Amino acid sequence: MPIQFTDYRDLFLNDRPMMDARAPVEFAKGSFPGVVNLPLMNDSERQRVGTCYKEHGQQAAIVMGHQLVSGDIKAERIHAWADFARAHPEGYLYCFRGGLRSQIVQQWLKDEAGIDYPRVGGGYKAMRTFLLETIDQALAHCDFVLLGGMTGTGKTEVLTQLRNGLDLEGHANHRGSSFGKRATGQPSNIDFENRLAVDVLKKRSHGIEQFVLEDESRMVGSCALPLPLFQGMQRFPMIWLEDSLEGRVERILRDYVVDLCAEFIGVYGDDGFGLFCERLLASLNNIQKRLGGERHRRLLILMEEALAEQGRSGAVDLHRGWIEGLLGEYYDPMYAFQREKKGARIEFAGESGAVLEYLRERLHQ
């Protein structure tokens, strides 16, 4: 087994187990799918060592680090690393640059637990650079197609049925609109970009050189699309997905009321329904200025009545009132303008079955 490993493509294509020896604050800013954080130093220890490094130099910082991580603390951390290494003999460890911290973890594992465990050369920084380059290379060499359409036409449903679909909203854990927040939080922006890049890498490894993705704004909730990708989306050809108003209302009712409510209850238990109500009302209030005072008040009354009835009886029929109003008076005029603006790029329009057939044929052209 190599002491240092630099085949980043292999790491991500094969979902190699990895333990991240960086401090929790570094890990929280961004990491990679499935990675476990088992730090050499916690946040306060890292901060103290960093201050020592600035004031007294590297050797003094190293001495302090060994003083802080010693005795029972050291034994406890080695035990956690050893458990991971034994559970994942095919795995790797890394730190920020593949330098001192991962070398120390590697050496202590060998000395104290008798385990030779490889580290990732270049560490987090090199792997992150590799993933960003993966997106850039795909933009340079692959064909991209946008899937557009009115709110509620089921664009995500179509994307998830395509071998070459890139589900931006799935990677961002957000449905993309003002009502798009889920019961669980969004990843950090770095995590979002990394998930997207790994998806692209895996699809390209299976020979896919054309991708379909939803026509999004730069922000999917709190996650920003990589700028080169967003810039490319301003010129990619577009497929326009259509559905009846009735079909769209039913889909929104299912996704944003029935399923989202169940999601909140699944995550928060008895508090879930109340939190779901708060989320739905907050989503409407977030677009109050754009709706205008009178329209916002009218839709708010409909939503409050629907939530009250849902709480009493479980029935969701009343939600159709505010959904229809929001579509007809707010979302549809915006999307109609967008369709007209992007009309020259639309190469096909139709309902889901026809769009799926067209996109699958396009993939094999």
UniProtKB/TrEMBL annotation:
GO terms for biological process: tRNA wobble uridine modification. Keywords: Selenium, Transferase. It comes from Pseudomonas fluorescens. The lineage of its organism: Bacteria, Pseudomonadati, Pseudomonadota, Gammaproteobacteria, Pseudomonadales. The gene is selU. SMART domains: RHOD. It is an enzyme of class 2 (transferase). InterPro entries: AAA_SelU, Rhodanese-like_dom, Rhodanese-like_dom_sf, SelU. Gene3D superfamilies: Rhodanese-like domain. Belongs to the SelU family. The keyword Transferase applies. HAMAP family: tRNA_sel_U_synth. Monomer. CDD domains: RHOD_YbbB. One of its GO terms (molecular function) is tRNA 2-selenouridine synthase activity. Residues 20-136 form the Rhodanese domain. Involved in the post-transcriptional modification of the uridine at the wobble position (U34) of tRNA(Lys), tRNA(Glu) and tRNA(Gln). Catalyzes the conversion of 2-thiouridine (S2U-RNA) to 2-selenouridine (Se2U-RNA). Acts in a two-step process involving geranylation of 2-thiouridine (S2U) to S-geranyl-2-thiouridine (geS2U) and subsequent selenation of the latter derivative to 2-selenouridine (Se2U) in the tRNA chain. This is tRNA 2-selenouridine synthase. It comes from the Bacteria. Its EC number is 2.9.1.3. The active site is at 95 (s-selanylcysteine intermediate). It catalyses: 5-methylaminomethyl-S-(2E)-geranyl-thiouridine(34) in tRNA + selenophosphate + H(+) = 5-methylaminomethyl-2-(Se-phospho)selenouridine(34) in tRNA + (2E)-thiogeraniol; 5-methylaminomethyl-2-thiouridine(34) in tRNA + selenophosphate + (2E)-geranyl diphosphate + H2O + H(+) = 5-methylaminomethyl-2-selenouridine(34) in tRNA + (2E)-thiogeraniol + phosphate + diphosphate; 5-methylaminomethyl-2-thiouridine(34) in tRNA + (2E)-geranyl diphosphate = 5-methylaminomethyl-S-(2E)-geranyl-thiouridine(34) in tRNA + diphosphate; 5-methylaminomethyl-2-(Se-phospho)selenouridine(34) in tRNA + H2O = 5-methylaminomethyl-2-selenouridine(34) in tRNA + phosphate. NCBIfam families: PRK11784.1-2, PRK11784.1-3, tRNA_sel_U_synt.
